Amino acid sequence: MGDVAAVAPASASAAQPEHQIKIVGLVSNEGANSEKDRLIVPSIDLTKVATTLPPEYKSIRGYRASALWSAVYALLCVASAGILCIVVSWWPQLYTRIARVRTTLLEKADVVLVEDGHGVVEECKVHEELSVSWFEFKKQRYIYWKQTRSFERVPAVLVEACSGATKRLKSGLSSSVVAERRAVFGVNAMELESQSCLRMLLEKIVHPFYLFQLISVALWLYEVYYTYAISILVMSIFSIVYEVYSQATNAKQMQDLVACRVLVQVLRDGGTLVEIPAASLVVGDIVLVEQQVVAADMLLLVGECMADESSLTGEAIPVTKQKSIDPEKSVQGCHKSSVLYSGSTVLRTKGNVWAVVIRTGFSTNKGELFRQILYPEAIPFQMVSDSYRYLIALSIIAGLIAIQRVYDAFAAGSTVPDMLISVFDLISTTIPAALPVILTVGVGFSLTRLRKARIFCIDAQKINIAGHLNCFCFDKTGTLTSEHLFFHGVDPCDGSEITSQPTSQDLDYALASCHGLSVVDGVVTGYALERDMFASTEYMLNASHEILKNNQVVLRYCHRFPFDAALQRSSVVVQAINETGNYRVFVKGSPEAMTEICESASLPSNFECRVEQYASQGYYCMGLATKVVTTDATTTDRAQMESNVKFLGFLLFVNPVKPESSQVIQTLESADIDVRIITGDNALTAMHVARQISMRLSTSMVYVDLVSDGSPSYQLLPSSTSWLPAGDLSKLLAMDYDLTISGSALEFVKQSSSMDLTNKLVLKTKIFARIKPQLKTWIVQTLMDSGLCVGMTGDGTNDCGALKAAHVGLALSDAEASIVAPFTSRDKAIQDVVTLIREGRCALTTSLLSFKFMVMYPIIETTGVAVLNHIQATFSNNQYLFDDMFVVLGISVLMLQMPPSKTLTKARPPQSLFAPRILWSIACQSICFALFFAATLIAAERQPWFCSLTDVAAGRKHCYEYHSSESGDMTFHSYEVSIVWLVGHWQYFVLAVALNQKDPFRESAWRNLSFVLYTAAVGAVMVLLLLWPGNTLGVEWFDLETPLPFGFCWVVGISFLINLVLAMLMEACIQRRAD
After folding, report:
1. Domain 456-481+658-826 has what CATH class?
2. Long-range contacts of 136-143, Cβ-Cβ distance < 8 Å, separation of 24 or more
3. Is domain 382-454+837-1073 given the CATH code 1.20.1110.10 in the classification?
4. Sequence ranges of the domains in the chain
5. Contact present, 66 and 96 (Cβ < 8 Å)
6. Mainly resides where (predicted)?
7. What 3 state SS string does 531-567 have?
8. Nearest to 235 by CA among 202, 218, 213, 211
């Protein structure tokens, strides 16, 4: 009887003796009065615990509802004018701490506060159904066990032997058992919380940034800045609506991916076949398999079918599923060839196919994939944290300027309301209103370009991370090489030539039968390798799994053992029509796997030399073996069938390199992106392919593997084929050669060497061969832990873990939306690796550039406003509007459309907003602005025509009419306002041109026609305002009622040209020095 155990978290049971629990009773319906009696059995014998699922939280605290404290919370919300409600929306756990009462007894809790490993706290409601108390955290159910006084993580899995499920084939589950299991495990649905648009809108509105914007808009409306305030309000609404729309669209896409709305036929209550929705399935249900989407993970008990698993694995070839044949094996331990996975599609069934539900909901294989998407491992993105530091720095500057403004206001005799309004005006200029639009729209442009290139993305944040990639790992077969392996022939190892038409009957039968092919609608389907091998024979296959020759049945299948990645082989059991009572077993697999099961006498004396010879020539080499048995193989286990077999020869396949692979690898390596190959193929074959694609490798390579005695040895290929003992593995690091290492050798290194030595060997290794799927994932994680930003691409099931683990994974799949990786190449083109990196670098550079622009924007505007406020002046509504809307927002959005450069270079975008080139750029542009700003003001003050606002306000000069209260107690008519405004918006133009010079990551700005035309149009308007003082546009639209003298305007214009040239030169020098 199988057991499942969960470890009680220490925080929940610190005061209790250590206990564990067993979950039993899902094996049999006997010996218990209720389902709960069968499910919960206390046990102190830890040796009998079969499976442990530790909690995914770090700490847990229980709380009870309290009418008194709820009333206190309501009063506090009223007393704070709703501020507490807003703060609670930012930190929801505050509500729990204020409005509820803490309890140390978890069984008394109505809600629990759960903290995960990253410090994120979440409130989870405790539910009770049929005396089962539970809550859900990260889509996993936690049930309260009285024996341990803690909540245990319980997956929705069936734990029993195959024989137990088989016994229910005629009866199914009773309604009472179904109800109890549903109470324990929940419904069979991957439910994603769907927030209403209203709720999402409210959450966005009370976000600190947008809340700040709304307060600013209210203040500006009070100041009669109607046009500007309404414009900012519209812009904020647009940004909020865009974000809500994107969030709702992404949520809808995710819900469509997880939704399963099929009807399923199940046996219930003594054998009645009923049709129920997929969500009503429970573990242990007996299901009649039909040609439709699979609603849960199921184990086949009767029959055979074919399924399409491309949406889960990226592998487009349908797979054949056969019933489980080991009655004593746990349903969770059966081979995947007997399991139908939730989300796959059954294409064909052979007769009535019955299966038992073994996993439901988020406990299914598909559910676990989606949990990884919903709750990914935190990959730190430096730009996010850096952006907050910049905003803090700007806020500090605004605070200091605000203090100065308070002093000036008191000195000028301003009223307190006017002073507060002007102070808040200064602060509001610190955080640019266009910032969220810029940050979201830029990624949107990148997504659009990727979609046009038929690269689909389910995690937009990974686009910028792709710009940091400095290491890329490739699967070999189907990625660097063709998807198809073409049959070259068989080497009988008897001195005869390689042939595709062997004279030996054993080889002839082996080629005809040792495969997993099926016939669907009259067409032979299966792996291309096996189709090509079978096509070389003179045999035919029918839908009844019979092999024919000249329209006569020759062989009939008794059983197939599909390829097992752990065993590295597959086999079939067939019966020849003219051999009654005898059965032939044919096995094919990797040469290494064949040496373990073949009789030694049947192996050729030069077995290893032949394998190395074929592998070094680029052949995909497999061994072929046979034996004759008299026992019905359907009642015999696989290990017995695949033992003591006679070696027949080598199967040779050609796997041509894709024509574009060489160019892709050379492009990456010329850009100093480290390239690795991680393959399950032979090391020599992998090295041959690496040479074919011109991968940068040392002339000779060190190949590390385990020799016959299990010790690590190495060869220096191709100069020597002698095996030398590796001894101290650290000496391999000192060799001036690239490494190739086998999976077995790498496992040995992991177990016997220090972590530091292991990591260094992984970093030095260029080719990883004979690597199993789990080890692929470990290699990628190790490279990431070593500080590399790692990308991974692959096309099959074996790559799923590595694709998920990498910083950026690109699945070569024709599925429109694959959950295998954040990016999917619909064309299955390896060139998309380069496309993705180019787009990533472009997106990252554009984000950095736009952020620089948006940092300089408040510096320029805040400086100008602060200088004017010092003399009781400010900008007018239309002046604010023109700068913020038409200059800054228009230019900054259009500059985001710059397409990526067509080439990859060695240059890399900065990894941080505090990178030297970013800091130097901001510092130099700020100094340049300060110099020209100050020089223009000083030059104006020394002109005989200049009248300062202070003199005009005091009545000492009468150059223009003084308006004392145009904005509070300030004016926007003075020479100072005209000069500061003209200088300010010209600085935005200067920045737009200087920052958008050609760089290694984006196309020339001239390719962005909309940006060029718009910037030119804005420049033309500003030239008109500057060089035609007193024109109608300037006076009536931009309130320039104190025009500057014509001669001085030309001087200012020339200084702006000097400013532009200097800014461009500084930016070019910084860029060149960084590159």
Report:
1. alpha beta
2. 136/186, 137/56, 137/57, 138/56, 138/371, 138/374, 138/375, 139/190, 139/361, 139/362, 139/367, 139/370, 139/371, 139/374, 139/375, 140/56, 140/362, 140/363, 140/371, 141/185, 141/186, 142/55, 143/184
3. yes
4. 46-154, 200-257, 263-374, 382-454+837-1073, 456-481+658-826, 486-654
5. no
6. membrane
7. HHHHHCCCCEECCCCEEEECCEEEEEEEEEEEEECCC
8. 213
Instruction: Write the DSSP assignment of 221-284 as a string of letters.
Output: HHTT-HHHHHHHHHHHHHHHHHHHHHHHHHHHHHHHHH----EEEEEETTTEEEEEEGGG--TT
What does the pLDDT read at residue 951?
86
Name the DSSP letter for residue 480: I
Q: Please write the tens of the pLDDT for every residue from 974-1020.
A: 899 899 998 888 899 999 999 998 889 999 888 889 999 999 999 99
- Which pLDDT tens digit goes with each residue over 319-378? 788 888 778 888 888 888 889 999 888 988 888 899 999 999 898 988 887 887 777 666
Residues whose CB is less than 8 angstroms from the CB of residue 867 and which lie 6 or more positions away in sequence, other chains included: 937, 976, 980
**Which 3 state secondary structure label does DSSP give 464?**
helix
Residue 95 tokens, joined: 């509500």
Q: What digits encode the pLDDT tens for the residues 785-840?
A: 898 999 999 876 567 778 888 999 998 876 544 566 789 888 888 999 999 999 99
> How does DSSP assign 903-940, residue by residue?
S--S----SSTTSHHHHHHHHHHHHHHHHHHHHHHHHH
Closest CA to 705 of 587, 563, 608: 608
**DSSP string covering 194-206, please?**
---HHHHHHHHHT
CA–CA dist 878, 887 (Å, integer): 12
- Please, what is the average pLDDT of the chain? 83
Beta pairing class for 345-359 and 286-289: antiparallel
Which residue spans within 667-789 are E strands per DSSP?
674-678, 701-706, 712-717, 724-725, 738-742, 765-769
What is the percentage of the chain residues whose pLDDT exceeds 90? 24
Within 13 Å and on the Cβ side, how many CA atoms surround 923? 9
Q: How many residues are present in the chain? A: 1075
CA dist., res. 951 & res. 966, Å (int): 18
Interatomic CA distance for residues 693 and 665, integer angstroms: 7
546: exposed, middle or buried (C-beta count within 10 Å: 0-12, 13-18, 19+)? middle
528 — pLDDT class (breaks 50, 70, 90)? confident
> Exposed, middle or buried, 1036 (CB in 10 Å: 0-12/13-18/19+)?
exposed
- Is 263-374 a CATH 2.70.150.10 domain? yes
- From the centroid of its chain, how far is CA 94? 31
Class of domain 486-654: alpha beta
Tens digits of residue pLDDT in 424-474:
877 877 777 666 667 677 788 888 899 999 998 877 888 989 999 999 999
Give the span between the Cα atoms of 440 and 464, in whole angstroms: 12
**Structure-token pair, residue 135:** 């809550």
